[in-house]
Design a protein that fits this description.
The protein has about 240 residues and is mainly alpha-helical. It has one domain. The protein has nine helices and two strands, in the order ααββααααααα. It has a two-stranded antiparallel ribbon with strand order 1-2. Helix 1 packs antiparallel against helix 8.
């Protein structure tokens, strides 16, 4: 005979499973919606429909009498140079290595490997997309920082969104308090926004480059989250986190 307590446990288990599947479905739909927006934006960029808007935005951030001088106080230019470094391959690479090292020291070897693969995948995807679109860097204003790669999508915006948001989600998974979870994701989102904005302020990217980078990076982070949730039991990542707790 099935007791009331067993029925309650069974109901909780089913409800939890259904909720998890619903979350995966919603996130999957969000990824598809983001990719649709990216495709539409890329089409507009390739046809040149956004060029006038992009150039106006860049020109608006410079002194009309001296396009080499950005608007705002002198410290703002220095701050932008410092902030944009947070999205460089060197800083992001060190952050990923540090996080993977921390996870490995905690005994979370599979989780560390997943973070490393997801991060490398984000960099590779950005390189492929840049070559595929082949958009030159802006020439409407002088660059305030040296650049060597193509423009669309913004590598800094995309990789910071992909890596910082992935790391923010990871920290949310190991945080116990709700306020701590919101803090982790909030910091990741703020860093992503500031890095992207700095690229436009420094004149090395069009606004649409940065917008596309954010959207693609967010899509990649969400896709990695879906893959991690789908494989965490099969690959032992969930058991590994439970044992390390």
């Amino acid at each position: 005979m099935v007791t009331r307590a067993r029925w309650r446990k069974l109901l909780i288990r089913v409800t939890s499973r259904d909720r998890s599947e619903l979350v995966l479905l919603v996130v999957g739909i969000a990824v598809l919606a983001l990719l649709f927006i990216v495709v539409a934006l890329a089409g507009e960029v390739l046809e040149g429909d956004t060029q006038q808007f992009d150039e106006r935005m860049l020109a608006a951030l410079r002194d009309p009498a001296d396009p080499a001088s950005p608007i705002g106080p002198a410290w703002l230019r220095t701050a932008a140079l410092d902030i944009t470094a947070l999205g460089s391959a060197t800083v992001l690479g060190l952050a990923v290595v540090a996080i993977c090292g921390f996870l490995a020291l905690q005994g979370l070897y599979r989780n560390a490997l997943f973070v490393f693969i997801a991060s490398c995948g984000g960099w590779l995807l950005n390189a492929v997309l840049k070559e595929a679109f082949g958009r030159p860097r802006p020439e409407v204003v002088p660059h305030l920082r040296e650049v060597m790669t193509l423009s669309f999508p913004s590598g800094h915006a995309m990789t910071t969104a992909a890596i910082y948001l992935t790391l923010g989600a990871l920290l949310m998974r190991v945080s116990e308090r709700r306020i701590t979870r919101f803090y982790c994701m909030g910091v990741a989102m703020l860093a992503t926004f500031l890095v992207g904005a700095s690229r436009v302020y420094l004149g090395v990217h069009y606004p649409t480059d940065v917008l596309a980078g954010w959207l693609i990076g967010l899509s990649w982070a969400l896709l990695c989250w879906i893959v991690e949730r789908a494989l965490e039991r099969r690959t032992g990542m969930k058991r590994e986190r439970a044992e390390a707790a």
